[in-house]
Amino acid sequence: MGGSIQLGRIWGIPVRIHITFLALVAIIGVEGYLKGGGLAEAGLSMLLIVALFACVTLHELAHSLVARSYGVRVESITLLPLGGIAAMQEMPRQPHEEAVMAIAGPMASVLIATLLGAVIHFTGYTGPVTHYGQPWLTMLMGTNVAIAIFNLIPAFPMDGGRVLRAVLAHYIGLVRATGIAVSLGQGLAVCMALAGIFLFKMNLLLVLIAVFIFFGAGQEGQQVRAQAVLDHITAGQAMVTRFETLNRDAPLTIALGYATEGYQHDFPVVAGDTIVGLVTRQDLLSALHHLGPQHTVGEVMTTQICQVPPEATLTDVYRRIAVGGCGIVLVRYGDRIVGLVSPESIRDQMVAAASGRPRAS
Ligand code: ZN
Q1: Interval between CA 350 and ligand 1 midpoint (Å)
Q2: pLDDT band at 359, cuts 50/70/90?
């Protein structure tokens, strides 16, 4: 995510804070200074926010560690003013796995609250009073309880929505289950916004959270629809069947001419009748920039040739491109290459599906 700073790694997962979060810490500090009247108050309030977000990090780590135990790679955890986001390469595909992953976060928050409650109960220590009029540890405990409850609301994009979706998916399938969780989330968001405006006399924080939920839910819905598209369209349907090839001995400048002028950006490289490598426009551009024009296509092509049968789904193809590092994927039928699928062809299919038109190319 743009505009975020990496703090470090926990169990190999990069933890980042978004710069807007730093702004939040500053605003809380100023508020504490003005309302409490002193630097000590300001420091205390800022420390509370930092401690709170350490708890949010633990919540996200709980999601992440469960996800990882199911073989999902967690790319990063980012702290935003309204909470944390754990970016995963893909969601667990088994509904029950997603449910366990989703429930792990609120459980972590409950556990933290319980530990803080135990400390308060057994030591009687609640820490200094903040400018909110509540003692430090009590507030930290209360907020962790609030985070757990808020996240258990059974609507997207909250964790509870994922659990609900997983349960529904068992009966009515992933796409319809997601649709219901998304509608619930967006309905809830509209109610929250209305309540924030009319009931609580312009409570901006509530309205902001409502907006966050509304768009967050919509995004989840889109992702699942996109995933469904990828699952149901085959490489044979999405492939480009008319394509040019480049000769291994062609100079870079001529190859780049092809790549920039024509409709095709990625090329199989041939020696005689055999495909010996692949080259993308990006490869050609950077090779020309770093090596100079006297080199040939054969010198810069990747020899890793990725192939799938026509019946492979776009999910398989996408995985080859995103994880396997293939620039383009060739479609092989028997001993013939019948087409190629590039990231662009996948994007075209997604766009077509989003606009409701099935597209064959
Ligand atoms: Zn969560």
Answers
A1: 28
A2: very low
